[in-house]
Specification:
By secondary structure, the protein is α+β, with helices and mostly antiparallel strands. It is built from one helix and four strands, in the order αββββ. The protein has a domain of 66 residues.
Length: 120
C-alpha cells in the first residue's frame, strides 16, 4: 500500500514537472534581459542619393551597386538605399518598391496627393 502511494506521488510530480510552463507575467520576470531594438532615425531625403566615393551613406542606409538597363557592359551605378527584398520592413513614410533597372527592391518615400484617383 505504501509502494502504491509512493508511485502515485512520483507520477504526479513527474506530470507537474513536464507540464506546460505558464507564460511570464507582462512587464518582466521572464528572464529575457535583451533591451528592445532602438529605432534608427532615418533621413528619408537621402534615399536614392549617390554613395560617397568610398561607398559611404548616411546612417541607416547602405550603398547599393548595380548596372542600369545596359547591364555589365554599361557603367556601374551606386545609390544609398534601404533594401527590402528579404522581408524587412521599410521605415515610416516609405514603401517597398522594385526598380528593375536599378537597385532592385528598395524603400522609397510614399508620395501623397490631394487629388482624387482618376475616375472618381
Amino acid at each position: 500500500m505504501i509502494t502504491r502511494a509512493v508511485a502515485a506521488l512520483a507520477f504526479a510530480t513527474l506530470v507537474a514537472a513536464c507540464g506546460p510552463k505558464p507564460a511570464p507575467a507582462p512587464g518582466g520576470g521572464g528572464g529575457d534581459t535583451t533591451p528592445p531594438p532602438t529605432e534608427v532615425t532615418l533621413d528619408t531625403s537621402k534615399l536614392g542619393t549617390s554613395c560617397g566615393a568610398d561607398g559611404s551613406c548616411a546612417d541607416g542606409l547602405s550603398c547599393a551597386r548595380y548596372y542600369g538597363i545596359a547591364g555589365p557592359s554599361g557603367p556601374e551605378f551606386s545609390s544609398c538605399e534601404v533594401a527590402c527584398d528579404t522581408g524587412q520592413e521599410c521605415p515610416a513614410g516609405t514603401a517597398c518598391v522594385t526598380i528593375a533597372d536599378g537597385p532592385g527592391a528598395v524603400c522609397r518615400v510614399v508620395e501623397t496627393s490631394d487629388q482624387p484617383p482618376v475616375g472618381e
